[in-house]
Amino acid sequence: MKLRAPMPDLTGATEWLNGEVTKEDLVGEKPTLIHFWSISCHLCKEAMPQVNEFRDQYSDKLNVMAVHMPRSEDDLNLDEIKKVAAEHDITQPIFVDSEHKLTDSFENQYVPAYYVFDKEGKLRHFQAGGSGMKMLEKRVNRVLDEMDKSE
C-alpha cells in the first residue's frame, strides 16, 4: 500500500470483537491507527502494552483499530483470539480477518504492522516489526500537529 493511498473499506471480517466500525466511522473526524497482529506472534504480544498505552493516551485524538491476521490454522481459533485479546487488554475494535480479505486490501504481509491514516483517510505512515514505537509515536504526532494547524 502506497503512502497517501486511501484507507480500504473495512469489509470481509469473519467476526468483529469489541464492536464493529466502518471506514465512514473512522474517516473525517480524526486520524486512525490500524494495527495488524496475530495470536501466534510473539512480537505482537510484546508490543501490545505500548499499543494500548498509545490508544489510551491519544483516545480523544486518535481512532485505534486492531486487525487479527492469522498466520496458520491455529490462528483461526476464535476462542483463542478472544482469550489473547482479553489477556493483552485489547479493548479497541478487532477485525478478525480469517480469510485475509482486509490483509489483502492493505497488501500487508507482516505482524505486527502499523498503519497511520490522517483524518481524510489517507495513509501517512506504515511500519512493520516489533521495534520502533517511538517512530510510530512521532508519526502520529506529526499527523495530529498537521490537523491542529489546519483547524
Give the helices and strands, then pairings.
Blueprint: E1 15-17, H1 23-26, E2 32-37, H2 42-57, E3 63-68, H3 78-87, E4 94-96, H4 101-106, E5 113-117, E6 123-128, H5 133-150
Parallel strand pairs: 2-3, 3-4
Antiparallel strand pairs: 1-4, 2-5, 5-6
Write structural notes for this entry.
The protein has 151 residues and is of the alpha/beta class. It is globular, with a radius of gyration of 14 Å. The chain has one domain: Glutaredoxin (3-Layer(aba) Sandwich), CATH 3.40.30.10. The longest helix has 18 residues, at 133-150. The protein has helices at residues 23-26, 42-57, 78-87, 101-106, 133-150, and strands at residues 15-17, 32-37, 63-68, 94-96, 113-117, 123-128. The relative contact order is 0.25. It is built from 5 helices and 6 strands. It has a 6-stranded mixed beta sheet with strand order 1-4-3-2-5-6, covered by helices on one side.
